[in-house]
Design goal:
The chain is mainly β. It has helices at residues 4-19, 24-32; strands spanning 37-38, 42-43, 54-55, 61-65, 70-74, 77-80, 87-94, 97-103, 116-119, 127-130, 140-142, 149-153, 164-168, 176-177, 189-192, 200-204, 207-211, 219-223, 229-232, 238-242, 249-253, 259-262, 273-278, 286-290, 295-298, 306-310, 313-314. The protein has one domain (4-27, 49-309): Methylamine Dehydrogenase, Chain H (7 Propeller). The chain is globular. This is F510_1955 family glycosylhydrolase.
């Protein structure tokens, strides 16, 4: 087995290379492809890639951007979402809708890349907030109710003079750079506190780091292992997935650093959790995805997990 840090960084690199950018020929085939029905009357849904995960504010739906548009989990079934099949990256949900970056559908007139966009109707339409044609943010996090958006900027652009961590509180009108003092390693994941604008967490191959001053300084709150997935629970605690395969654990960390553990689903060898989301209406309901495109769902804080997709294929019941 590969060392965990090597495995995760290799997978992340592959995901960025293969999952960034929509090939026109591929998209034309996806747009023209007929709907395939399996398992009785229930459509089989595919996940070419998984670029994020989030629940809606009412808790009724979970969304995944899957390279060729959005997928939605509702009433125990995965479905394709109507609307343009943008290749969303940096997907992050708030109480009002979602923010994202990525690449536009070839069937639309948006410039590539999208810059930063917002949707308040579950992706049926989008509003470009800024940086269209300039930048694709692979790492982005928005506070669920705070109005703060954080991005990891990959290259200088018209709004940001440097690479690194930036925050906006007026939907990309102005950006403030964080110094990121105290962080060690390559940033793998990022999460914004649901209520506090200045509280943000990042993870690297060396653990989880927390900042309470908009990213200027960070304190390490989880060490000893790469942590490929990170989010905030809706009561303001960090939820981090660390480890690989059967060694995967889900760690709940409060702002003081105190830790608890949630039972993780059974992860295949040489796979790891890539995204985590908590239902805002049910503190015990979580969904996780893996790098090999398995998806798991629990309504009892991990005591039992249901697998809703396997290797990029939905497990819908007829």
């Amino acid at each position: 087995m590969k060392p965990l840090s090597t495995f995760i960084l290799t997978v992340l690199t592959a995901m960025i290379i293969t999952g960034c950018g929509t090939d026109p020929a591929e998209e034309e085939l996806q747009q023209a492809a007929p709907e395939v029905e399996n398992k009785g009357s229930v459509e089989e849904v595919e996940f070419p890639h998984i670029h994020g995960l989030a629940f809606t504010e009412d808790g009724e739906k979970a969304f995944i951007p899957a390279h060729s548009g959005l997928r939605v989990y509702e009433d125990g079934v995965w479905k394709k979402v109507e609307g343009p099949r943008h290749d969303y990256m940096g997907f992050t949900m708030t109480a009002e809708g979602f923010y994202s970056s990525g690449h536009p559908s070839m069937q639309t007139d948006y410039e590539n890349p999208l810059g930063i966009i917002k949707s308040t109707d579950e992706g049926k339409t989008i509003e470009v907030l800024g940086l269209e044609g300039e930048v694709d943010f692979h790492l982005m996090a928005a506070g669920y109710n705070s109005g703060a958006i954080y991005v990891m900027n990959p290259a200088p652009n018209s709004s940001m003079d440097d690479t690194g961590l930036y925050m906006t509180t007026n939907e990309a009108g102005d950006w403030e750079k964080g110094s990121m003092n105290g962080v060690s390693g390559e940033i793998i994941a990022m999460a914004a506190h649901p209520e506090e604008q200045s509280t943000v967490a990042v993870s690297t191959e060396k653990g989880v780091y927390l900042s309470q001053n908009a990213g200027d300084t960070f304190e390490q709150v989880l060490d000893g292992s790469p942590t490929p997935a990170l989010t905030f629970t809706h009561d303001g605690k960090m939820l981090a997935a660390k480890g690989i395969g059967k060694e995967t654990t889900l760690q709940v960390i409060d702002l003081s650093g105190e830790k608890q553990q949630i039972q993780a689903p059974e992860i295949k060898e040489e796979d790891a959790i890539s995204y985590i989301a908590q239902n805002p209406q049910s503190a015990e309901t979580f969904m996780v995805t893996t790098f090999k495109k398995d998806i798991f769902y629990t309504e009892d804080s991990g005591e039992t997990w249901e697998q809703t997709a396997k290797e990029g294929e939905s497990q819908n019941n007829s």
